[in-house]
Write a structure and sequence with these properties.
With about 220 residues, this protein is of the alpha/beta class. It is about 50% helix and about 10% strand. The protein folds into two domains: about 5-15 and about 85-215, Rossmann fold, CATH 3.40.50; about 20-80. It has a six-stranded parallel β-sheet, with helices on both faces. Helix 8 links the parallel strand 4 and strand 5 (about 180-185). Helix 1 (about 20-35) runs antiparallel to helix 4. The radius of gyration is 17 Å and the shape is globular. It starts with a strand and ends with a helix.
Length: about 220
């Protein structure tokens, strides 16, 4: 294998969660906290790239601290109520990588309990290490701490890790640690995100099969 440790994002990289969880939750948040404000799923995805959803809420919609707390409650309700599906081919890829001796870790802005639930529902072996929304901000992406901790705990060097994510927080974290970054292009179609990733990622992957090729051959077919 080209890489010893696969570091995966979760939402829209491993599971197809925006259509069934995150965008519906976002719509519900707007309906309650900013009635009359509308935003398409495309605009929602772009806001995740820049300026980032938290900044979008605070700076563009003017959410107060109390409204930010309410936004979190609504979002958690949707996460608890819906189990998203893995993208086709991803469970088989993870099983193959693990069976070949690879290490799988997750660095996500979702919650560890939801990540474990989604893996269990798909009968996929749980990741060895999970870094999620329960961490303080200074210890989650785009900050380098999760990858630094993964390297410390697994004994892997930076060139033995591959980070896969659909957004720039994962890219920034990976590049700050000298880790190869592959952009996930199979989750959704957003031209602004695609253009950004094709320009800045080490690899742009259109399909899960592209990821499998990269992991086991070092190349994208």
């Amino acid at each position: 294998m080209k890489y010893k440790c696969l570091v995966l994002d979760h939402d829209d990289t491993t599971v197809n969660s925006t259509p069934c969880i995150h965008y519906p939750a976002f719509v519900r948040i707007l309906e309650e906290l900013r009635p009359g404000v509308t935003c398409t799923q495309e605009e929602f995805l772009t806001a995740n790239l820049t300026p980032g959803l938290g900044v979008f809420y605070r700076d563009e919609l003017g959410f107060t601290p109390e409204e930010m707390d309410r936004e979190q409650v609504i979002w958690k309700e949707y996460i608890a109520a819906v189990t998203p599906h893995f993208f086709p081919g991803m469970p088989e890829l993870i099983r193959r990588f693990r069976a070949s001796g690879g290490i799988v870790c997750v660095v996500s802005h979702s919650f560890p309990e939801a990540i474990r639930r989604d893996y269990a529902a798909a009968d996929v072996p749980l990741p060895e290490l999970i870094y999620g929304a329960d961490l303080e901000r200074s210890k989650n992406k785009p900050h380098p701490w999760p990858l630094e901790d993964i390297m410390d705990r697994t004994g892997c060097s930076a060139d033995e890790l591959l980070m896969v994510d659909d957004l720039n927080a994962g890219l920034d974290m990976a590049h700050s640690c000298g880790v190869c970054f592959a952009a996930c292009g199979w989750g959704y179609e957003n031209q602004q995100i695609r253009a950004f990733m094709e320009k800045n990622a080490d690899h742009y992957l259109n399909t899960v099969a592209d990821l499998e090729n990269l992991l086991f051959t070092g190349e994208v077919a």
